[in-house]
Amino acid sequence: MKYADYIEMKIPARPEFVGITRLTLSGIASRMGFTYDTIEDLKIATSEAITNAVQHAYKGEDGEVLIGFSLHEDHLEVVVSDNGNSFNFHETKEALGPYKENSIEFLREGGLGLYLIETLMDEVKVHQNEGITLFMTKYLEGEQVERDAETVST
Amino acid sequence: MNITIDVQEQAQQTTINLAGEIDAYTAPKLRETAFPYTEKQGADIVIDLSGVTYMDSTGLGVFVGLFKSLNANNGTLKLTGLSDRLKRLFDITGLADIMNINSGSEGGV
């Protein structure tokens, strides 16, 4: 298996840093060739995940939120983890297993936010160990991949 | 990555012009500033969102809170100047059917 390019950032679990992550995400998604609307969807879904971590996982206590961006040829995976500790991305993902819809139930207190994540992303997976790790995937559409490829080749 | 809240009080109506981003950081400021106006009996509040460049569920939560408070006090809330992006957010959450919203592009009232 070919590993994707991986970018990671860690922010203090405080609301004022959520916007910083959106700026980084915009840059990454734009470079990958996502459309304006899809980038906006990604920004909302990622912000919701981080807000969830800030408001529910730490409840005002000091902590850190880890945000990972895995850049694949045809999709972007955003990982938001609220245990604050750095983790092995590939190991964590392999330990995930086939989670079903009901695995998201325990996050329901963030109702509307999680609903938006599920609506705006193509795939969402949740993993819980010490904290909660959310895996969110968005695929590039066919024509966008082609357009991006043309840009790269010229 | 901040929000500008400009409140204009007139005899019959209070207009709140918003510009910037509404997220986990700025939503509490918006709630704090706008909420007192919703507690007056029969308040008529218009919130202009044409300057809003980003909003997520934290913003929706504030508007739902303001809407509920106004309803309890016989007031009305109208949201105007919504971009297509913001309109979509209200559509997919079902709030567009519950609240009075006008998108900017339609040139509505």
From TrEMBL, chain A:
EC number assigned by the record: 2.7.11.1
Keywords: ATP-binding, Kinase, Nucleotide-binding, Serine/threonine-protein kinase, Transferase
Domain Histidine kinase/HSP90-like ATPase residue range list: 11-138
One Pfam family linked to the record: HATPase_c_2
Catalytic activity reported: L-seryl-[protein] + ATP = O-phospho-L-seryl-[protein] + ADP + H(+); L-threonyl-[protein] + ATP = O-phospho-L-threonyl-[protein] + ADP + H(+)
GO molecular function: ATP binding; protein serine/threonine kinase activity; sigma factor antagonist activity
InterPro entries: Anti-sigma-factor_SerPK (IPR050267), HATPase_C_sf (IPR036890), HATPase_dom (IPR003594), RsbW (IPR010193)
Task performed by this protein: Negative regulator of sigma-B activity. Phosphorylates and inactivates its specific antagonist protein, RsbV. Upon phosphorylation of RsbV, RsbW is released and binds to sigma-B, thereby blocking its ability to form an RNA polymerase holoenzyme (E-sigma-B).
PANTHER family for the chain: ANTI-SIGMA-F FACTOR RSBW-RELATED, SERINE-PROTEIN KINASE RSBW
Family from the record: Belongs to the anti-sigma-factor family.
Protein name stated in the entry: Serine-protein kinase RsbW
Organism classification: Bacteria, Bacillati, Bacillota, Bacilli, Bacillales
Gene name for this UniProt entry: rsbW
From TrEMBL, chain B:
UniProt key word NAD: no
Keyword Phosphoprotein attached: yes
One MF annotation (Gene Ontology) recorded for this entry: anti-sigma factor antagonist activity
Domain STAS: 3-109
Job of this protein: Positive regulator of sigma-B activity. Non-phosphorylated RsbV binds to RsbW, preventing its association with sigma-B. When phosphorylated, releases RsbW, which is then free to complex with and inactivate sigma-B.
PANTHER family: ANTI-SIGMA FACTOR ANTAGONIST TM_1081-RELATED-RELATED, ANTI-SIGMA-B FACTOR ANTAGONIST
NCBIfam families noted in UniProt: ant_ant_sig (TIGR00377)
Protein name: Anti-sigma factor antagonist
Organism: Domibacillus enclensis
